[in-house]
């Protein structure tokens, strides 16, 4: 009984503290993710107030948090959106992968880490945070902008790519080597393609199994199905997160819409626990030595994201201001980078990876949304206009000659 | 004359519709999955970005559509008025105490008595165009009539139950 009461006190105090932090963050227009990570650092081993009784609870909660993050991501997209987008957005997605995954991998080799760690770091620097970016676009009133579909399609491609990348990393980190990784990848490709085909053809049939009218039954059946499939996927070494993502994609129509509303508060709760857990498993004492490398990596990969955005939106015929907005908007890394790092930490691949990933995500997720506001300032606009004006006379002059 | 409306899917959010007006401005609407709509006004200098994005609820969007749609109809009526000098258009609310609430349009014999025509009835934000003689009036109906000044005054009087002539 005694340990249960301590657990209640610890979890209660933790959640309350997170609530207060989130409130402070919102006042400054800050995403709560960095605050949760910092809270985790403070409460973890070697932190200010180490938690004792609730560690196991938080660990399980974190696992559920990842699954809920991914199922909600899947619910946001319909299968036809994922596939329909593919052909037109594939070049942008490829540029994105090359420009952002390779610097991460290269950086890992530079630090003298093994190829497993390089694979993990490549994923961490590659994937932008769909959640943070969608929120920033909404907050800045840019949903109607012409570059927004470009940004969203890059995010969609990244999220879809994760369905193949996560099983690969899961298998490689489990120590099965490249061949085992290839096998897991093949299983994942087959599963994802099968789910997409079934979801496009029979999505309504799957969704009609689940009643929309009864909120309680809907909550239990969607949550149950998601956890079950995630568990089976993990058992098959395909990664629980991907299993959950696929459940989200397979559900469509009113079921998806209502499930999004019902699951959102649960996701907010457990996702917060997940970010805290990641902070918890990082020793704050390990942070100072990796701050400079993390800063360097952040600056490098934020620049490559800007370049990605500029190239991707230039292809779509968007003018210079819009290209810059695209690049700056794509900078924040968040939940996915932490999910990937979490996999690496669980398998103990490189002890410095967790603090590096924490610092890296902290830097990009705080500075990214702030830098995304830059194009809205008048001085920035006039600067860009001047540059465009300098470029413009070149055309008529040569034409006159 | 037809206006081209462009549709762009926004994966994970909804769909965007936009059109370029003849004055060169771009306006658009983002329809979110959850029914929210944003009205968009685009920047003149930088047509890729929107100057303002105004969130509208279902009801607000419907009300705005009504205002825009209704003004279109009244504009067409105004055009008719200009073509024939001396012809006027007027919206006449059916008074609550009118003897014609629940009775048919034919019973008013408005056209015979005043030579003004009842061309439309506005009911519950809906337009009922060219109602026939068997059309039945309800309380809160608004009658749109076309005629001379005298004729319209006559229609107003008839609907009020004031059968002076």
TrEMBL record, chain A:
Descriptive protein name: Putative sodium/proton antiporter
Keywords: Membrane, Transmembrane, Transmembrane helix, Transport
GO cellular component: membrane
Molecular function terms from GO: antiporter activity
Domain of life: Bacteria
Ranges that cross the membrane: 6-24, 33-51, 57-77, 89-111, 117-138, 150-178, 184-203, 215-234, 240-257, 269-286, 292-312, 324-347, 353-372
Family, per entry: Belongs to the monovalent cation:proton antiporter 2 (CPA2) transporter (TC 2.A.37) family.
Primary site of residence: membrane
Subcellular localization(s) per the UniProt record: Membrane
From TrEMBL, chain B:
Coiled coil: none
InterPro entries: AAE_transporter (IPR050144), KhtT (IPR026278), KhtT-like_N (IPR058776), RCK_C (IPR006037), RCK_C_sf (IPR036721)
GO molecular function: monoatomic cation transmembrane transporter activity
Domain RCK C-terminal positions: 77-161
N-terminal signal peptide: none
Biological process terms in GO annotation: potassium ion transport
This protein's name: K(+)/H(+) antiporter subunit khtT
Organism: Actinoplanes friuliensis DSM 7358
């Amino acid at each position: 009984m005694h340990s249960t009461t301590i657990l209640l006190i610890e979890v209660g105090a933790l959640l309350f503290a997170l609530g207060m932090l989130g409130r402070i963050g919102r006042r400054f227009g800050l995403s709560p993710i960095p605050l949760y990570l910092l809270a985790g650092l403070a409460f973890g081993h070697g932190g200010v107030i180490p938690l004792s009784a609730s560690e196991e609870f938080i660990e399980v909660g974190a696992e559920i948090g990842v699954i809920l993050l991914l199922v909600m991501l899947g619910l946001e997209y319909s299968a036809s959106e994922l596939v329909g987008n593919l052909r037109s957005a594939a070049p942008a997605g490829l540029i994105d992968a090359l420009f952002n995954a390779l610097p991460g991998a290269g950086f890992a080799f530079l630090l003298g880490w093994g190829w497993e760690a390089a694979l993990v770091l490549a994923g961490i620097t590659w994937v932008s945070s769909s959640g943070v970016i969608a929120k920033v676009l909404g907050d800045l009133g840019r949903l109607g902008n012409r570059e927004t579909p470009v940004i969203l399609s890059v995010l969609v491609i990244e999220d879809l790519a994760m369905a193949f990348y996560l099983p690969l990393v899961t298998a490689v980190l489990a120590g099965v080597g490249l061949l085992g990784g290839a096998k897991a990848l093949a299983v994942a490709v087959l599963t994802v393609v099968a789910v997409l085909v079934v979801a496009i053809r029979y999505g309504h049939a799957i969704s009609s199994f689940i009643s929309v009218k009864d909120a309680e039954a809907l909550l239990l059946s969607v949550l149950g199905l998601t956890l079950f499939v995630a568990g089976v996927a993990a058992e098959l070494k395909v990664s629980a997160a991907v299993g959950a993502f696929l459940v989200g994609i397979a559900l469509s129509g009113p079921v998806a819409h209502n499930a999004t509303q019902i699951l959102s508060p649960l996701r907010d709760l457990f996702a917060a626990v997940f970010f805290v857990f990641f902070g918890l498993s990082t020793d704050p004492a390990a942070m100072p030595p990796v701050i400079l490398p993390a800063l360097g990596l952040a600056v490098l990969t934020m620049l490559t994201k800007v370049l990605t955005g500029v190239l991707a939106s230039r292809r779509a015929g968007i003018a210079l201001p819009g290209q810059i907005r695209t690049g700056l908007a794509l900078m924040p890394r968040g939940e996915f980078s932490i999910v990937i790092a979490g996999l690496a930490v669980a398998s103990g691949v490189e002890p410095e990876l967790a603090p590096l990933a924490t610092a890296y995500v902290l830097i990009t997720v705080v500075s990214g949304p702030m830098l995304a506001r830059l194009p809205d300032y008048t001085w920035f606009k006039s600067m860009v206009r001047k540059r465009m004006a300098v470029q413009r006379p070149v055309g008529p002059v040569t034409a006159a000659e | 004359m037809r206006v081209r409306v462009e549709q762009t899917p926004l994966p994970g959010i909804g769909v965007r519709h936009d059109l370029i007006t003849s004055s060169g401005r771009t306006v658009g609407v983002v329809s979110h999955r959850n029914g929210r709509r944003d009205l968009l006004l685009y920047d003149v200098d930088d047509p890729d970005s929107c100057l303002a994005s105004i969130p509208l609820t279902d009801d607000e969007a419907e009300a705005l559509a009504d205002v825009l749609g209704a003004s279109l109809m009244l504009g067409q009526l105004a055009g008719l008025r200009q073509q024939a000098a001396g012809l006027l258009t007027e919206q006449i609310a059916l008074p609550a105490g009118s003897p014609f609430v629940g009775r048919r349009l034919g019973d008013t014999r408005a056209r015979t008595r005043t030579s003004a025509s009842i061309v439309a009835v506005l009911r519950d934000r809906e337009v009922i165009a060219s109602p026939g003689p068997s059309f039945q009036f309800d309380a809160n109906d608004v009658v749109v009539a076309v005629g001379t000044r005298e004729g319209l005054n006559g229609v107003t009087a008839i609907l009020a139950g004031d059968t002076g002539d």
